[in-house]
C-alpha cells in the first residue's frame, strides 16, 4: 500500500478509523467528507455514527450486527468509488458576531499584537470564508480554517476558566466558536447571538463539518434582537450557495 493511500485501522472492537493523510488540507478533508456522505447515502447495517476529523473518519459500529473485517471490506469498496476530483461543501452559513467590548475582551490585544486597529481586525476576520474541518473539544465546537492569516494570534498564556457560549476566538491560524460555557485559551474577539448547541434541538449542533462559514459584524442592538429570536428558536440561520463545491 502506498503512503498516500487511505489506511483503515481498528480503534477498539467497535470502531474503524480511515486515515486519508497527515496534513490539514481541504483536499484531504474533502475525501473525508465524501466518504462520510457516501456511507450516509447508502446506510450500512451496523454503523451507528460517523465522526469526521481534519484528516480521518471514525466509523463506530455495533459488533453484534457487523464485524471489523466485513466493515473494512465495505469501506474499502466505498473508498475505491471516490472520484479523483472530489467535491467540498458548497453551503455557506452566515454567522452574526458582535465584536469587542464585553463580547470580545481580547480584540484590543489582538489588534495591538499586529499593529492594526480593532476595526481592521474585524474587517479581516470577516473577509474570508472559513471552512469547518471538524467539531470537537466540546459538543459543536467548530474548528475553522481559512481565516486571514495576517491576524493569526497565539493562544492565551493562561487559559480562562469560563468562556461564555457563542464566543468567537482565534488560536494561531484558526478561528472558532465556543458552543457552550467552557474553559479555553483562545483569544476572544467577539460573540455570536446564535445558539450553537442545544441538546433538545435536532440536530443539536448548529454547524457541521464540511460547511463554510462567513462572519458578519453586527452592533449590540442587532445582537440582542437576534439573541432573543435565537433563544426562542425563531431565528433562521442564513445559508447561501458558495460556488459549485469543486476543488
TrEMBL record:
Assigned EC number: 3.5.2.9
Keyword ATP-binding assigned: yes
Domain Carboxyltransferase residue range list: 6-207
InterPro entries: CT_C_D, Cyclophilin-like_dom_sf, PxpB
Any Pfam family hit: CT_C_D
Key words, A-Z: ATP-binding, Hydrolase, Nucleotide-binding
Superkingdom classification of source: Bacteria
MF term (GO), any: 5-oxoprolinase (ATP-hydrolyzing) activity
Record SUPFAM superfamilies: Cyclophilin-like (SSF50891), PH0987 N-terminal domain-like (SSF160467)
PANTHER family in alphabetical order: 5-OXOPROLINASE SUBUNIT B
Name of the protein: 5-oxoprolinase subunit PxpB
Organism: Dethiosulfovibrio marinus
Gene: pxpB
Amino acid at each position: 500500500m502506498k503512503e498516500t493511500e487511505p489506511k483503515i485501522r481498528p480503534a477498539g472492537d467497535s470502531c474503524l478509523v480511515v486515515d486519508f493523510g497527515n496534513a490539514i488540507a481541504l483536499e484531504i478533508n474533502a475525501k473525508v467528507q465524501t466518504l462520510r456522505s457516501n456511507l450516509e447515502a447508502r446506510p450500512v447495517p451496523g454503523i451507528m455514527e460517523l465522526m469526521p476529523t481534519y484528516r480521518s473518519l471514525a466509523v463506530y459500529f455495533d459488533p453484534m450486527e457487523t464485524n471489523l473485517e466485513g466493515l473494512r471490506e465495505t469501506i474499502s469498496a466505498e473508498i475505491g468509488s471516490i472520484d479523483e476530483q472530489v467535491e467540498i461543501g458548497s453551503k455557506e452559513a452566515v454567522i452574526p458576531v458582535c465584536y469587542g467590548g464585553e463580547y470580545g475582551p481580547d480584540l484590543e490585544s489582538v489588534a495591538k499584537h499586529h499593529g492594526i486597529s480593532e476595526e481592521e481586525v474585524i474587517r479581516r476576520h470577516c473577509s474570508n470564508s472559513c471552512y469547518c474541518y471538524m467539531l470537537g473539544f466540546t459538543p459543536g465546537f467548530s474548528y475553522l480554517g481559512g481565516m486571514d492569516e495576517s491576524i493569526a494570534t497565539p493562544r492565551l498564556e493562561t487559559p480562562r476558566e469560563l468562556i461564555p457560549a457563542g464566543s468567537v476566538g482565534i488560536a494561531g491560524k484558526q478561528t472558532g466558536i465556543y458552543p457552550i460555557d467552557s474553559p479555553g485559551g483562545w483569544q476572544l474577539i467577539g460573540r455570536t447571538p446564535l445558539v450553537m448547541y442545544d441538546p433538545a434541538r435536532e440536530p443539536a449542533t448548529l454547524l457541521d463539518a464540511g460547511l463554510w462559514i462567513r462572519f458578519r459584524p453586527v452592533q449590540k442592538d442587532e445582537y440582542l434582537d437576534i439573541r432573543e429570536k435565537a433563544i426562542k428558536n425563531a431565528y433562521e440561520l442564513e445559508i447561501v450557495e458558495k460556488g459549485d463545491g469543486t476543488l
